[in-house]
């Protein structure tokens, strides 16, 4: 059974060293799966300690715990030295295990967690020695192209740009670079821009939150687009349920990791030892998403039919302003939040019409004259209309309205005189 060593985080370095002397520090390996190849992409090496009674302890709390401020300067330096020693032991043993493994995909990667603080210390030392990971890769005969340097999430007092020389050296040597636990702390966003990683690991907390929160779904969608635009691959880690798995696949996961597939073990699990068959997974996922999309298409078509049947009339006046009339307003009273008309440059020409019911609509003249050309949905309808002038309704992506804080989809249609009719629809009208 895996035990956590959190209760020991207040120990001094000498106490930790005494404890480590009575057992063995070893790497455990958790497989990382490739979605596109239906195979194991690599293994993350995780630090474990086996005590004299044979109990296995995670060393995550040891590495992530702040060094107690009550310690003297010398004791704090000794603690840092011990952390580096244990870290290097794990890295060395992991590299040796992978390099000696037989019946393993010759391209399987090894993910090694490295602290930004250790990197900063290496650069500050101004040593002529090569980085430790490069040294052990060469001595073991393991191709650096098979190693992923995973920059772990931790409090880092320095500027992330300071690590660029070392990261660039790793990349020139053939290593891949990953940013760990994106989303757990905002500092990771600046690491993406500064270090341009090959792989972005998305934190489990974001995945779990996305199941119930539209906000987090939008964040994950944005991360997916960000990774695509930067040429980075997304690795979703910590997957434990089928729902989390589907969310990861929905938001562009290229690689997957978590207890849903396999727990970390001392041995290198091969693909035949995993409990999931990818061919079935892909088929189930596609059918699940196809059902969602077809349901959405049906709902959108029903809404467009109601918009067309509602008898919307846009009436222009001699002063350049316009009014909206509805012949069958009851068709829109449960769906439409507001309506208005702009000219082709985004200047609003009509009042806002809201609270639509069979008895009429509320008019708000205060929005006349405002310009909405800066809104993404306006440029989106301009672009789509320029490509297809058929005059059909154009729907925006869902977004939160700045004033009402409602989740909306904006439908738009270009009028014969060049003006544009906008209809904001509440998102609950969609699946």
From TrEMBL:
Classification via CDD domains: EAL
PROSITE patterns to which the protein is assigned, alphabetical: EAL
SUPFAM superfamilies per UniProt: EAL domain-like, Sensory domain-like
Domain EAL: 9-278
Pfam families listed in its UniProt record: EAL, YkuI_C
Species whose genome carries this gene: Leptospira sarikeiensis
GO molecular function, one term: cyclic-guanylate-specific phosphodiesterase activity
PANTHER family associated with the record: CYCLIC DI-GMP PHOSPHODIESTERASE PDEF, SIGNAL TRANSDUCTION PROTEIN CONTAINING A EAL DOMAIN
Listed name of the protein: EAL domain-containing protein
InterPro entries: Cyclic-di-GMP_PDE-like, EAL_dom, EAL_sf, Sensor-like_sf, YkuI_C
């Amino acid at each position: 059974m895996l035990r956590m060593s959190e209760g020991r985080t207040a120990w001094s370095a000498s106490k930790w060293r005494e404890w480590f002397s009575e057992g063995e520090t070893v790497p455990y390996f958790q497989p990382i799966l490739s979605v596109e190849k239906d195979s194991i992409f690599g293994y993350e090496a995780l630090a474990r300690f086996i005590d004299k009674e044979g109990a296995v302890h995670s060393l995550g709390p040891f590495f992530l715990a702040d060094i107690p401020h009550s310690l003297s300067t010398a004791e704090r330096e000794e603690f840092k030295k011990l952390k580096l020693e244990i870290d290097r032991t794990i890295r060395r043993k992991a590299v040796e295990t992978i390099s000696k493994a037989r019946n393993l995909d010759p391209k399987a990667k090894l993910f090694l967690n490295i602290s930004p603080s250790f990197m900063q210390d290496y650069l500050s030392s101004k040593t002529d020695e090569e980085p430790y990971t490069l040294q052990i890769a060469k001595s073991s005969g393991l191709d650096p192209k098979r190693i992923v340097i995973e920059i772990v999430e931790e409090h880092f007092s320095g500027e992330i740009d300071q690590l660029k020389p070392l990261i660039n050296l790793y990349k020139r040597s053939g290593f891949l670079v990953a940013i760990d636990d994106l989303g757990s702390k905002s500092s990771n966003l600046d690491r993406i821009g500064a270090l341009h990683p090959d792989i972005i690991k998305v934190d489990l907390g974001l995945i779990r939150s996305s199941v119930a929160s539209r906000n987090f779904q939008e964040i994950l969608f944005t991360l997916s687009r960000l990774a695509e635009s930067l040429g980075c691959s997304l690795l979703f880690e910590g997957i434990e349920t089928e729902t989390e798995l589907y969310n990861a696949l929905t938001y562009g996961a290229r690689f997957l990791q978590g207890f849903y597939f396999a727990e970390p073990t001392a041995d290198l699990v091969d693909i035949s030892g995993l409990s999931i068959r990818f061919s079935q997974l892909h088929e189930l996922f596609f059918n699940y998403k196809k059902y969602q999309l077809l349901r959405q298409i049906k709902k959108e078509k029903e809404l467009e039919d109601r918009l067309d049947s509602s008898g919307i009339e846009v009436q222009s006046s001699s002063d350049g302003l316009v009014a909206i009339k509805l012949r069958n307003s009851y068709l829109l009273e449960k769906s439409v939040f507001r309506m208005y008309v702009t000219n082709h440059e985004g200047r609003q020409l009509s009042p806002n019409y809201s609270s639509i019911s069979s008895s009429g609509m509320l008019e708000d003249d205060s929005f006349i004259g405002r310009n909405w050309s800066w809104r993404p949905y306006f440029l989106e309808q301009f672009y789509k209309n320029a490509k297809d002038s058929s005059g059909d309704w154009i729907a925006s992506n869902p977004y939160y309205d700045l004033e009402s804080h409602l989740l909306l989809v904006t439908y738009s249609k270009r009028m014969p005189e060049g003006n544009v009719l906008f209809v904001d629809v509440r998102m609950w009208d969609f699946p």
